[in-house]
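Q: How would the C-alpha cells look for this protein?
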Amino acid sequence: MTDDASNPAYILFGVSQVSRCIYAWHIDTIQPADTSSNGQLPPCRILYRGQQVMPWPSDPDLVILNDRWAGSTAAMLLYDLAVTHSSVMALAVAIGPILYFYAIESELDDEKDIEWTQLYSLDTRLDKITQVRCMNNTIAIVSEDNGKHQLSIWMEIRTDMQASQVFAMEFDEPVHDMAWYMSSDAQIFLAVAFASKVAIYGQERASEVSNGMDNWILYTEVRMHDYDDSISGVAWVGNGVLVVTAGNQVRCYVKWLAHQGDNAIKTDVRDAFDATSVFDISYVANGALPLYHPRYLIYYLLWDKLDLINHILFAVYRALQIADDMDLGTGDVPVEIAPPYSLATVLELQKARKRKAAHKQSYDALFDGEDEKTSDMDYDDPTRPLTEHEAQKCKDWLKDRQLVGLTSRDQTQLVAMIDTFVEISKQGESLDDNGARFTALMKNHFLLNQMLPEDQRKQDLSSRDIAYALHSESQDLLLEQCLAQCNGKLQWQDARSMGLFLWLQKADVVRDQMEAIARNTYLSKQEDKDPVNCTLFYLALRKKALLQSLWRTAHSHKEQRIMVSFLANDFTEQRWQRAAAKNAFVLLGKQRFEYAAAFFLLADKLQDCVNVILKQLQDYQLAIAICRVYEGDHCPLIKDIIQNKMIPQALANDDRWLMMVGYWLLEQPSEAVRSMIVPLGQVTEAAATQNDEAAMVTDPTLFILYQHVKRMSAHRRPSLDDISPDLEYLFTLQVARSYERLGCPLLALYILTQYPPIKPRPSTPKQLQNGTMDLFATDDAADTSPPAPTTSHRAADLFASDDDASATPESDIFAEMSKPSTSDRAADLFASDNDIFADMPKPTASNRAVDLFASDDDAPQAQDDIFADMAPTVGDKDLSSYKALLVIRMLQTVFHGLASNSHYAPFDATLRHQYLQNRQTLFELGEKLEIPEHLFSTLLMEKTIESDTFHLYMDMIDKDQVPSNVDVEQFLILFQLGCCQVFETVLAAKPLDIATLLDMIKTFHTWNEAIRARLPHLFAKHQTFKLCIAAYICYILITTKQRHYEKSWVLLSHLSRFMDHIHEPDPTPVVVAVFAEIIKNESKMVDMDPEDFESVSDDSIFGFDLNEEQYKPKQGYQDVSTGAVVLEAATLNFVLGLLEIGMHQSQEDEEDDGKKKKKKKKKAPRTICQLCALTRFFGFFFLKQRP
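A: Here is the predicted structure in C-alpha cell form.
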C-alpha cells in the first residue's frame, strides 16, 4: 500500500492462532536529505497499529493474502481501481469449510489502530481445505476428500461481493503450491505445482454451443524429472517468468514453450493452434475475438448495427485488396492478414442506435450490382457503404487468404455473413427490428448450410430465431422470406425447420400454409403421386372430398379401390368413426404412424391423433399445427402439448428460448420473461416469484428480446412487475459477463454503459453457501417431469384383431395385408500493489448512469464525444475494475493484428497510423474509467514484449513519432529483457519463430542509437553489441536447424567480416552494413555441376533432392540424415572457430594497446567468450541427440 506516490508505505500484519488476533504494523520509508544512497536502501520507520480480537468460532486453519503482486501492471491497476471505489479483500482466514474475508477500514496516514471489517463469509462446503490463493475475487481452493485432491475456482466480477464456484477439477496427486498471474491484457494464469511438474491452467473462451460459461483448461506443463527433491514452491515474476523451487534449487522458466521431451510439453491447445508461448495460448484459447469474427458480426446484426458491420467489412475489403495487389497469401506459404480498423469509429457507430440517414438512402442503390451507380462516391472513405461488387470480391479473396483469429469454419461463416449483410441491406426499413433479426438469422442459416459439408449443417432454425419471429409485427413479410427459401414449394419439413406454425399468428394464414403443404407434398413426386403422404394435412383441413378425388386419380396405387370406397362413407356416423379408428390401430401395428394419425382424424379423435404424433413421430410442432388447423387456436389440446411436451423438452435441453416461446403461446408473459432470467427448473415450479434468483446466461442475446418485451409491457397489462430490480440487476451483469466470456469485451462494456444495471440496496454481510443460487447459479433440472400424455381413449371394439371373422371388408380395409409385427457469480479478476491513485482527485458522485454509448438522439453532450459520462458513479463503483478489464482485453486484438501485418511493407504506413489512433482511443477510454495514462502506456509496452511486436515502437522511435506519454527508457529496458528471453530459448533448442530475430536485426540501427542516446551507461558497457552478436549467432542456429541452407550460407558468408570488426570501439557502421546485406539476401551459394551428383542421386547422404536448384529438405525440421547432421556440425564448428579467433584477436589487440596506454578492458571479449561457451554447449547438446 501507499499513502503518498513518492513515499511508499506498507502494512505488515500477523495472525495469531492462539489468541485469535490480528496484529498490524505501519512501515514507511524516510527520504534522507542526501539523495545519493550509494546503493543502500533508505531507512524505514515502523509504527505499531494495534491488535484486534476476531470473533472466530475456532482457530484458523489457513491465512490467505490478496495476491495483488500477480505479475503485471494490469494486476496492480485493477486492484487499485477496486480499492478506490469499493471495499476489497485484504486478508482471509479459513476455518473448516468457511472462508472469512476482511478489509482494512482505517486510513494509512492516521495513527489510530488498524480496523478490520468483515466483508462476507463463504461456506465452500469443502472438506479439509489445504491451500487457498486469492487475487481479489478470483480464488483457487485445494481440498482433499477420500484421497482425491480437488481444485475449485471461485470468481465474481464485483469487488465487494462473495465469489461463487465456477469450475472444479480433480487430481490423483497432492498439490504442493499455487500462484496466480495476470498478463498485461488481463488474461489469468494459475500455476499448480505438483511433486515433479508445474501445470499452468487458464480460461477457455466459451462457445455458443456450450452450456457453461466457465471452463479452465491446461495450457502447458513444465516437467522436472531431474529434480532430486519435490517441488516446494512456485511463483510468477515480471513478463511471465515462472520461478520454481525444489530443495536448494531455484529455476526460472520464460514464456516460450518447448518440444515434447524437454522441460515443457505440448498441450491440446498448442497442438491445435501451433502456439509458441503461454501468451499465444491465452490469446487462442481465451482472447478477445477480432471484430470481423462472424460471432461479433451476428451479435452486432441483432443489435441493428448495420453501419458498424459495414465499417468492419469495408476494413476487411481494403486489407484483402492490399494483399491481392501484393499477391500475398496465394502461394504455398500461408499468410494471415489482420484488417486494421478505427476503434474510435467502432465506438461511435456502436453507441448510435439507428443507421445514419445518408446510409439508409444509399444502401438500396449500392446493392443493385452496377458499379456505375456508385461512381460518384469516395472509395477512400472508410465510412461509405460497401458495394455489392466489393462484397463479391471480398468473398472471392477469402477463399485463398486467411484472416488472423479465424479458423477455416469461421472463415466460411464470415463469407455467409457477408452474403447475409448484402441481403439484409436490401430490406431497407420494411421490417420491424425483430423481423429484421429473424430474417438475418434465417438467411445466414441457409447460406451457411450451402457452404458447409453435409455433416456440419443444421437442419432447423434455433428456437432463438423462432422467438424473434413470434415477436415481430411484420410476419407477412417474414413468411414471404421463408417461402422464398424453399422456392415457393413449402413442405412440412421446411415449415418445421422454420417453426412456421409456432410463430404465425393469423388463423387464415395458418390454414393457407397447411393447404400449401398438403398440395406441395402431393405434387412433390412427378410420377406415382401418392395421396397417402398428404392425407394427414387434408384431413386436418377437413377436406375429405378433395382427398377422395386425389385417390380417384391414383390409378397405379394398390390401395386406390379400397380408399375411394372407404372415403365415400359418412364419417359423422359413429359406425364409420369406429371403423376409421379401428383401421388407425391396424396402421399403428404396421408402424405407419403418420397415416394412423390421419385415420384418427377421420374418426374425429383429435386427442388420439395428437398422441400418435407426439409419441411415435416425436414432433410437437406437427401436433400443434394439426390442432390449430383442425379446431383453431383455442383448441385445449394446444395448451396440453405446450405444457406436457414443449416446455419439458425445453427444460431437458436447457433451451430458454423454447421455454419462453412456450409460455408466450400460453399467454403467460410474466413466466415467459422469467424463463429468460431465472433457472429453468425454478420457472416450472410453483414457487413464489419473490424467491427468483438469476441464473447463468449462456446466450446474451436474450437481453435484446428482454428489452423489447420490457418496452412492450410498459403499455400493456399484465406488466413485468414480477421482475424485481435485484433480479434485473443480476441478469444485466450476467449478460455483460456472458459477452466477455464469449470473446466480445466491447459488447460487454456496451451493456454495462448503455443499459447500466441498477444496483440493489446493500445488505449486511451474510454467509454464502455453495448451494445458494447466485450470479453464477446453474439451471437445476426439475426432478420430475410432467406425465406424458396417454392414448388410452379407445373403445373396446376398436382393438379387434386383423383376422377377426366379424370384421367386414368395408370396416377393415387393410384386412388382406400382412399381419403387423409387434413392435456463481462472475469474476472480479483484479489485483495491485502501490496506491497509484494517491495523487488523483476523488471521483465525484453522480446519480447519472454511466453511458459510454449513449445514442446520438438521447445524449445531451456533443455528438462526437463517445466517452461522455464514463466516470464511475455511486451505483456501479464495484464494477470499475471489471470495466477496466474489458478495456484492457481489447489490447489483445490490437496487438495480435499488428503482429500479423507488420512484416508486410504495404501495411506499414497504414498500421502505424491506425495503431496510433487506436492507442489514443484506448487512452481516452481508459481515462474515463480513471486509468492513468502512464499506466496504460506501461501496459502497452508490456504487451509489446509479450506479443513480440517491439519493432513497431522501434519504427516510431526511428521516425521520431513516439507519443509524448511513452516512456522510451522503460521500453528499451523491457526490450533488452525480451531479447534475452529469445536468446535463452534458442540456446535451449526450443522452437522459435525466425521473424522475432529478423525484427531485431532489421531494427538494430534504431535501438542501438536509442540506447546510445537515452541509456548511455548501457551503451558504454557494449550492451547493444552483445545483443547483436547474440541475435546473429541465434539466427544462424535457427536457420541451420530448420535446414534453410540458402539462408545459412548468406549468414555464414558475412560472419567473418562481422567478427573482424565487432571488437572495435564503435562497430556500428560495419554491423549496419552487414545486417543490410543479410536482409537483402544477395549472397548465393556456389554453383554446382549436376554431374557431380550422378553417383549419389538416389542413395544420397542428404535428406533433400540433389537435383533441385535449391537445397530444399524433404522432411524440413525432421531431416536427420547423415548429410544434414554433417552440415549442421560443420556450421557450428565454423561459428565456434570464428568466435574463438575473434576472442583471441581482441585479447591480442588489447594487450598491444595496454603496452602503449593503460586503460580499462573492453567488455566485448567477455561477451564473445560467453557466447562462444553457450554456442559450444548448444552444439554438444544438439549433436548428442542425433542418431
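The first strand starts at residue 9 and ends at 16.

The mean pLDDT is 76.

Upvote if useful.
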